């Protein structure tokens, strides 16, 4: 069972990542992953990868960026490349906000489905993704370079399917009740190249 956020909802903002966020995103990355990306990788993603889109969850009450997520827009598919929430901020529903934000962004930019890889051992993340309609479709052997762990490949199927639409509506309703007003505004400037 998840805890209440303890943070007034009006203090949270889900928004597109900006170059000024690179240092904070890299700090979240280091706190979350043993072999995380350096700040230069975020800089490359934001400034030089036309397929990359990143979002952040900002606690305007002083904690700053508490999580971020990113995807690459590949033809008509969003490939989720990362979702990270500070260890001390987990189990508040922030990961759900970030995944919903990525899916909203992908749909707004014309993507028709989403896919990702997840560590086989990360049961919590796999359960989170299943809640958004991702299902396991395969494995990548020794995918993770830090320890050679396998990855589970997960995909949503079509965004316009009745099953996805119903699940998405329930997710939006639950998140809106829990975090009133916290939605990702998709600016026109982030449309696919």
Question: Would you give an account of this structure?
Answer:
- There is one protein chain.
- The chain is globular.
- The protein has a single domain (9-183), classed as Gcn5-related N-acetyltransferase (GNAT) (Aminopeptidase), CATH 3.40.630.
- It has five helices and seven strands, in the order E-H-H-E-E-E-H-E-H-E-E-H.
- It has a seven-stranded mixed beta sheet, with helices on both faces.
- The longest helix has 17 residues, at 162-178.
- With 193 residues, it is of the alpha+beta class.
- The mean pLDDT is 87.
Could you name the key traits of this structure?
193 residues; alpha+beta; Aminopeptidase; 7-stranded mixed sheet; 5 helices
SSE arrangement:
Layout: E1 12-16, H1 22-32, H2 39-48, E2 52-59, E3 64-74, E4 77-85, H3 94-108, E5 113-119, H4 123-130, E6 135-140, E7 151-155, H5 162-178
Parallel strand pairs: 4-5
Antiparallel strand pairs: 1-2, 2-3, 3-4, 5-7, 6-7
Helix pairs in contact: 1-2
Query: Tally of extended strands?
Result: 7
Average pLDDT, all residues: 87
- Which band does the percent of strand residues land in? 25-35%
| SSE succession | EHHEEEHEHEEH
The rough form would be described as globular
**How many structural domains in the coordinates?**
1
Instruction: Count the DSSP helices.
Output: 5
Into which percent range does the helicity of residues fall?
A: 25-40%
Order of adjacent strands in the largest pleated sheet: 1-2-3-4-5-7-6
Distance between the termini: 41 Å
Say which CATH homologous superfamily is assigned. Gcn5-related N-acetyltransferase (GNAT)
Overall radius of gyration: 16 Å
| Name of the level-1 CATH class | Alpha Beta
Largest sheet: 7 strands, mixed
């Amino acid at each position: 069972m998840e805890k209440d956020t303890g943070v007034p909802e009006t203090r949270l903002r889900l928004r597109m990542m900006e170059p000024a966020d690179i240092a904070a995103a890299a700090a979240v990355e280091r706190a979350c992953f043993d072999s995380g990306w350096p700040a230069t990788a975020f800089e490359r993603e934001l400034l030089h990868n036309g397929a990359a889109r990143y979002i952040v969850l900002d606690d305007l009450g002083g904690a700053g960026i508490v999580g971020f997520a990113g995807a690459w827009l590949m033809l008509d598919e969003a490939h989720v490349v990362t979702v990270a929430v500070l260890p001390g901020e987990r189990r508040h529903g922030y990961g759900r906000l970030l995944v919903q934000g990525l899916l909203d962004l992908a749909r707004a930019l014309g993507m028709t489905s989403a896919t990702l890889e997840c560590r086989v051992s990360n049961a919590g993340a796999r359960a989170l993704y299943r809640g958004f309609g991702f299902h396991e479709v395969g494995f990548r052997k020794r995918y993770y370079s830090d320890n050679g762990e396998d990855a589970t490949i997960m995909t949503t199927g079509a965004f316009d399917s009745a099953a996805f639409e119903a699940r998405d509506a329930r997710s939006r309703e639950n998140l809106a009740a829990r975090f009133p007003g916290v939605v990702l505004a998709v600016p026109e400037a982030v449309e696919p190249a």
